[in-house]
Every structure is written in structure tokens, then in C-alpha cells.
Amino acid sequence: MDNKVFCLRCNKEIEYKLIETDTHTKYNGQEIEYKRQDAICPNCGAYLTGTIPALFDVNFQRVWAIVRKGDNKDEDSNN
Ligand SMILES: [Zn+2]
User: What CATH fold (topology level) applies to the domain 4-69?
Assistant: First the structure.
């Protein structure tokens, strides 16, 4: 899988690292707790999520799955 993006801080193309962060957001006034997938630069630690459109999809799907279930319980999703 190609996971190279350009890191502005390093000023070069790097292979990003995926991390999971516990976070929350609001959707239709509902507080949603979920694990957000972020991409960071392994060299400088900069967040590169904004430069990777695919991650928006991943995170949107995670939020949406919770919204559809109608609760925000973190079910055993350790994988
Ligand atoms: Zn960097």
C-alpha cells in the first residue's frame, strides 16, 4: 500500500504512520465518542490527516456507524 505523503515540516515525502486517538465530536447535537484515525509523520510527528482524503472517509464511517446504532457506547472493538 502506498502511504507516502509530503510533510511540509520535513519538506520531503515521508511514509506516514497511522495512529488511533480517542476523541469526540458532535453530530446532530449528539455527542459521539469514537476513535479517530490520524496520520502522523514518523520523523517530526506532524499531523498529516488533512492531506489524506481517505482518512476522512474512515473517520466519517466510524462516526456514522455510531450515529446509526443510536448510542455512543464503545463496544469491544480492539480488533
Ligand atoms: Zn515531518
Answer: Ubiquitin-like (UB roll) (3.10.20)
Tell me the pLDDT tens digit for each residue of 28-50: 888 999 999 999 999 999 999 99
pLDDT beyond 70 at 72: no
Ligand 1 centre distance from Cα of residue 15 (Å): 9
Distance in Å, CA 57 to ligand 1 centroid: 23
- Would you kindly state where each structural domain of the chain is located, as residue ranges? 4-69
Q: What are 25's three cell numbers?
A: 465530536
pTM above 0.85, yes or no: no
